[in-house]
Every structure is written in C-alpha cells, then in structure tokens.
What we know:
single chain
Amino acid sequence: MFKTKNSSNIAAFFIPIMLLLFSANMIITGCAGTKMIKPVSISTIWEAEDHLNRNADRKTIVKILDFLSDTLSVVSVEENPSIFAYIKHNQGEAYNLLSRIEEKNVNLMKALESLSEALEIRQIREYPVEHALSQNSLGSVYQGLSEIQNKEVYLEKALYAYDEALRVFTIGFAPRSYSTVHNNLGAAYWALSSVRDTERNLAHAIEAYNEALRVRTIEEYPYSYAVTQNNLGNAYESISKIDEEMENLLHAIIAYEEALKIFNENEYPLNYAAVQNNLGNSLVSLSEMQYKEKNLNSAIHSYRNALKIYNLNNYPEAYATTQNNLGNAYWLISSVREKQKNLLRSIRAYNNALEIFSLLEYPLKYAQLMNNLGNSYVSISDVRNQPESLAKKVVPYDSSDKMGNLKKAISAFREALKVRTQEDYPYDFAQTQINLGSAYRLLYEVEYIPENIQKAIIAFENALKIYTLDDYPVLHNQTAANLEMIRKIIRKQGQIR
C-alpha cells in the first residue's frame, strides 16, 4: 500500500510485514498454522503456529502436504470423521502457508477447499473448539484471497469467519486463541478500511488490536505482543489521515516503538526492518506538524536501520520500498539544512529504488518514483542560486546546471505520465501535469524559447481538466492562478499565445 504525502509530490511506500508479509504498512497476522498430525491441546497448537509462521520453508511444507495426502488415503470420513476433519484442517493450513511462498491463488483455493471440508464435520455444537480453529484459519485464507481479487467480498467473509471463531474463543475460556483471532480481526478491518467506511473500519481495527493486547502482554507473549503493536501502529497511522492527525501519529509511533522492544535486529531481522520502515513513515508525517528536522532525522535513521536488513539481492521489493521512503525523507529535510547534499541523497535513493521498480513490472510504483525523482531534480536545479550555497562557495552558479537538472525533471515527469493517464489515474495525472508545467516554466527562465512556456501552459491546462472548480475548488484556483501568472509573463514579453 502506498501513501501520498501531499498533493505536490512525494509518495511513501508501506511494507506489509505479513506472516501471512506485504500491504501497506507491514501487516502481521496470525493463523492457526500447525504441522502436527496428531490431535493436541489448544495451547500446543498455538505454540506450533508461532514456530511454523517464523520457520516454515517450502521443503518442510511440501513434506507435510505429502504426508497428509498419504494419511487421507487410509482415513475414511465415514469411520473417522473427526480425524478426517483434523487432517483436512492441517492440509488447509499447509496450503495457506505455501501460498505465501509460491502460486498464491492456486494454493489459497486449495486451502479454502480443505478447510471447507473440515468445517462440514466440525460443526459448532459437536466440535466447538475445532470449529473455532478452522474458522480462524478460514478467515486467514479469505484475507489472502482478498489481496488478489474481490477484495471487499473476501474481507467480509473473513470478518464473518473470525466472528464465528469468537463465539467459542472467549477471553475466559481460551485467552490466547481469543487474542489471536482479535489480532486477525483487526487486520481484516484495517484492510477493509481501504475499500469503504474508512474511519469506522479503522476504529474497529484499533478496538480489535487493543482487545488482543489484553492477553498479549510483553511479559507473557512477547512475540505476539510485538506483532499486534505493529498492527496497531498501522491502524493509528492510517486513521491519522482522517482525524486527530498529530494525536494518532503519536499513538502510532508509540506502538511501533513498543514492537521494537521485541523485534530486534538479531532475533527478528525481517520484522525489525519492516517496523523500522513503518516507524520512519509516521515520523515523516509527524515532521510536517512539529520538530521538522528532528523527526526527519529520526525517520532517516529508521529507514537506514531497515536497510541493514533489506538488500537488493535478498529482499528486492522491501529494499526498493525503503529506498523510496528514504528518498522522500532526504527531499523533505533538504528544505531545512544541507540542501544540495540532501537532494543528491534523495536522487540516489530514488535511483536505487528504480533498479527494482521498473515500468514493466511495477508500473504504479515506477510512476510514483518518477514523480518523486522529478521533484528532486526541480529542487536541485535552483540549489546553487541559494544564498547559503553561494556563501559556502559550493560551486559557482552555472545556468547550464539548472537547465540540465530541469530537463531531467521533465523527463522524469513524462515517464510518470506513461502510467498516470487521465483515464486511469486522473488525480495523479493532474498532480504530475502541475509538476511538469512548473518545470517547463522554470526552464523558460534559462532556455528562453517560446516552446517551453507553451508546454507549461498545456500542462497546467491538462491539470485543470481534472481539477475542476466543482470537484477540487482549492486546487482549481491554485492551478488557474499559476496559469494566469504565466500568461501575464508572456503577454508582457509580447509573446501572446
């Protein structure tokens, strides 16, 4: 999931942590995973789930599936319904875990089929605990499917499955199971908030996570505590865009810092890196309201911590995601100090991200990165005009430097517009057209040819096709004012269009 920081420009990428790993922020959910073949107590199943979620590899899962398949060939559903259902449940769990490694849709559909067969036998009156276990697992599968297709439909089914599990798993009867289902319930509400009823669903997510934390204390269940604190941070960060921005961002930061009390670099490197990325994003947002330099410095530190784990070869998507976010932080802090140095760092970070986020494989992220990169080139085009740079004798001002960087910015914005079309992404199209128009207007100051100012006018006019007075009155007025300013300039110079 991505987050646009403001209308002009930068887009932060969130890393979904999944243990189911990736959505907008890192989301960590639990499932009733187990690799045991014999019936065990509830507490043992949950312990196995923790180990399987952290350690399961493809080879192990395939071995489990082979064993379960062989076992099913000698177990009759008529003669041993409870054993048959138990094996089907475990088969569903194994396919769910395998879906996170390969052939996601295929394996999730196999998991759905196995768990549905288990639940035909595991009715709540006859097998209440087993019914609840399978419903929780079914909810996890539905959540996985929602990331591929029919998002709202599958999330509604996930919520229903978790509610079914909570008919059995009360805080008094099965506290740990109760907390696991509430963590998963929170994750489903958080995902649904991106589809509809954003504020209401985020409030439900926060409520569910806090309910899970009644059981998941740092003393008794440190790993689960950290999982839920990270997810709670994601929900607070999301709701900060709607209501009580500063207060909710502070809650998010506290939650991420709580998660990092457990997720350290040595024991849980991937979780550590994902939470550090999420913490960095919240600190960047907070920097827009208070202590700009301090919070941006902290955000940069968090992103750099994440990049100790994420590298180009082993975790390419997470690496590129974090490099984009690091580039955003450097771009923002360049307005506070060391403008040239920090803008160069932002350009380097964006280019690092572009090694992975190509136009063909990641068109939306490619477009966002190109828009971000263009903004950095526009900013650095004027850096040597700044009094502080001249006083420090960085480099004598050279108009060709400005021209070269503005042309790089224009090229980047045009690359973004290959994806951000008026038909498919109208708002992003308008945003990038404004950036493009501004770059052409600045280029006209150093490359004094009518074509540049004409292209600036065309870009602003394109933006106004989307930013209408009825739909976006503030943006419309701002864009129209910029357009009129350009027209005044060329009228004054006798170059009326």
